[in-house]
Amino acid sequence: MLLLNLNRLIISCIICSTTILLVSTAFDTITTGRFLDDSRTIVSPHNVFTLGFFSPVNSSHLYVGIWYTVSPRDVIWLANRATPLNDTKGTLMISKDGNLVILSGRKEIVWSSTLSPLIDQFSNGSVVHAQLLDTGNLVLLSSTSGNTMWESFDHPIDTSVPDMKLTVTGFSTRKPVMQSWASPSDPSLGIFTVGMDPLLLPPQMMIWKGDKPYWRSGPWSGIIFIGTEHSINGDSSKTRWTLLNDNDKLTMEFNYPNKSLLSN
Fold first, then answer.
1. Strand-pair category, 63-68 with 49-54
2. pLDDT band at 43, cuts 50/70/90?
3. Cβ atoms of residues 161 and 132 within 8 Å
């Protein structure tokens, strides 16, 4: 897992550890007839990741997040980062228009996947369901075609995991793609961001503290970022990077050849 953590610098900002306050029964998917509340979780097919409601340490706010099943403190994604629930009740469900939404205890929508194309498809009889994959990606799928209509990997928070593609488009200004938590108890936007500097060639990963550069990965060699000692090609226990430059779109991805590292 690639964390924005200043103490574990490969891409390093701050990921704030959390304490998960939840969990009883688990099931596989969210459908139009089956929702997720604060007493339940979703577990990916091979039990790698868990999705559910949680409160950070020393916080009474409630969030929907995804974490490693073997390490609940490592939250990799949040839905309602900017709109925490202030009460102890919450529901994650598929709304009438086919979007994935979070409802407060008062049944008010505090977060939505907000994909307007779903509205027409759903009203025309298309049924959707949400599924948590073993990659940690939460996907909203058409139950008729199987097409992915929305996915959490397109909305990274402060953590990148294997198979997640981080994409930067338009190389006119600096392009942050992830941002740290404000504090260990507050996952709102923090001071550190990570992304690519479009003015640097070959491409480099950058961390900014506010508007000021804080860390550089070193140039891309075609195999590794030369300043990241952990990116050693050929060692099965190390990170392997892929960087694809397509006109004004730069896509960055990393993976572990040894998949067992992700579940142990």
1. antiparallel
2. very high
3. no
**Residue 208: is its pLDDT beyond 70?**
yes
- The number of helices, as runs of H, and strands, as runs of E, in the chain is 1, 22
Q: Please, what sign has the CA dihedral across residues 41, 77, 135, 101?
A: positive
Which pTM does this prediction carry? 0.82
- Which carries the bigger pLDDT value, residue 102 or residue 195? 102
Domains, the chain, with CATH or none? 2-13+156-262 (no CATH), 25-154 (2.90.10.10)
Q: Computed from CA positions of residues 197, 239, 256, 213, in that sequence, does the dihedral angle turn out positive or negative? A: negative
Residue 163 tokens read as 């198979």
Which two tokens mark 222?
A: 């075609």
Q: How many CA atoms lie within 13 A of 78 on its CB side?
A: 29
d(CA 8, CA 37): 34
Measured distance CA(22)–CA(183) in Å, rounded: 21
DSSP lists the bridge partners of residue 141 as 129, 148
Run of H or E residues at 140 = strand 138-142
CA distance 59 to 237: 36
Question: For residues 95 and 129, what is the distance between their CA atoms, to the nearest angstrom?
Answer: 11
